[in-house]
What does this fold into?
Amino acid sequence: MTAVIRTEALSKRYRRRLALDDCTLTVPAGRIAGLVGPNGAGKSTLLGLVCGMLTPTGGSIEVLGHRPADSAAQLARVGFVAQDAPVYARLTVAEHLRLGARLNPRWDAALAERRVRARGLDPGQKAGSLSGGQRAQLALTVAAAKRADLLVLDEPVAALDPLARRAFLRDLLEFVDELRVSVVLSSHLLGDLEQVCDHLIVLADGRVQVAGDVADLLAVHHRLTDTGPDGRRPPDGAEVIHAEQTRGDSSMVVRTDRPVPGADPVDLEDIAMAYLTRAAAATLMTGAHR
It folds into this structure.
């Protein structure tokens, strides 16, 4: 399996704070990988390490088979859109494209100009006067026209309205189909990730809670209902990820490779929330026993 990102026991410490701890994962090529977790989980730190903007405290990381940012050629293979889709407020749309052409040896001018026309962006308009959705589209255009092998997107749609988010995600899918690019997309919005992602990474407290192709994760996770004292029990060998009781009903999400007759299917949000809830409960318990 060709991997675009491979880490082993990766860690990053900021003075006394451990932002990323023992992070081991593999992201296969050709995927749109959704990275989800609460604030402070380590998502931006992980993406900063992938892009070479940060250096690890421990462990190892390879991006596209090499150390991140170890050469100009390696930098050219990774496109990055940071939070809030930052652009240069005083530069026009056309000036952004000219700057992109000067800085990126694989720059696709035809793609950039076609995208600007298709999205109705005025080449002479300064980026500072664009709407949030238009700025996001400009940032995505610049990243895509770089003709990178990997696009890293850190919360690019968090501040956008639903229509702008939908347009951004639709265009992202078009880019993946056209450019055959791999993507890592960080977001709090599980519904958005579910629309576009085929690989999932759940991060909490600086640790990977679960990671894998969405189809594989859906196949081994199940929801059991009516699991109270006199109700159903998880099958032998199944791992209980999270159990809850609401309004007299009880249920649990379990993980097992074996078929579970009568179980309800789960979706991407069910899986992510089960692992995040379990991680939050473990953090509370650790704090309570200190």
